[in-house]
Amino acid sequence: MKPINWLGDSRKAVSDFSDDARRDAGFQLERVQQMSKENLIIKQGSGNVFADMGFPPEEAQNLILRAELINQIEDYVASSGMTQQQSAKKLGVTQPRLNLLLKGKINEFSIDALVNMAAKAGMQVEMKVKRAAWATC
Questions:
Q1: Which of 33, 47, 116, 137 is the most buried (most CB within 10 A)?
Q2: Which domains are delineated in the chain?
Q3: In angstroms, what is the C-alpha Rg of the chain?
Q4: C-beta atoms surrounding 87 within 10 Å
Q5: What is the pLDDT averaged over residues 26-37?
Q6: In this predicted model, what pLDDT tens digit does every residue of 38-91 receive, in sequence order?
């Protein structure tokens, strides 16, 4: 079986998928690992792993924003030295809710909820809007 060479934070991004999406990604990665070089087609990624997996463009954008926010909040919790209970209180959520976030349950959180948590952690969230390469007039 061929090894997987993860680029950038792609491994972290995949680990943040929901259980079903992570299972599907794992299945697809295993298929690629078992392919011979003759059958392998390599394509440049779009920069959004969710779009590359076939999610509709609007959903892929929403998912990547939520994944990025979740990663930042996870990093905050990990580096804070606080317990989950203490972190949850600081973030304005219950400990079970924070646990869902730390388990990568991306579908459990809206962008609004994640921005609120990030702000309570002392983060400033910025947004940049530009025309997508795939967009038509």
A1: 116
A2: 10-52 (no CATH), 57-120 (1.10.260.40)
A3: 17
A4: 22
A5: 76
A6: 666 777 888 888 888 888 989 999 999 999 999 999 999 999 999 999 999 999
3-state secondary structure of 136: coil
- Which of 85, 111, 81, 107 has its CA nearest to residue 98? 85
What residue has token string 């997996």?
53
Report the distance separating Cα 97 and Cα 7, nearest Å. 30
Side-chain half-sphere of 103: how many Cα atoms within 13 Å?
11
Task: Report the 10 Å Cβ neighbour count for 98.
Answer: 22
DSSP per-residue codes, 79-124: HH---HHHHHHHHTS-HHHHHHHHTT-GGG--HHHHHHHHHHTT--
Length of the chain: 137
* Structure token digits, residue 10: 């792609």
Burial class (CB in 10 A: 0-12, 13-18, 19+), 91: buried
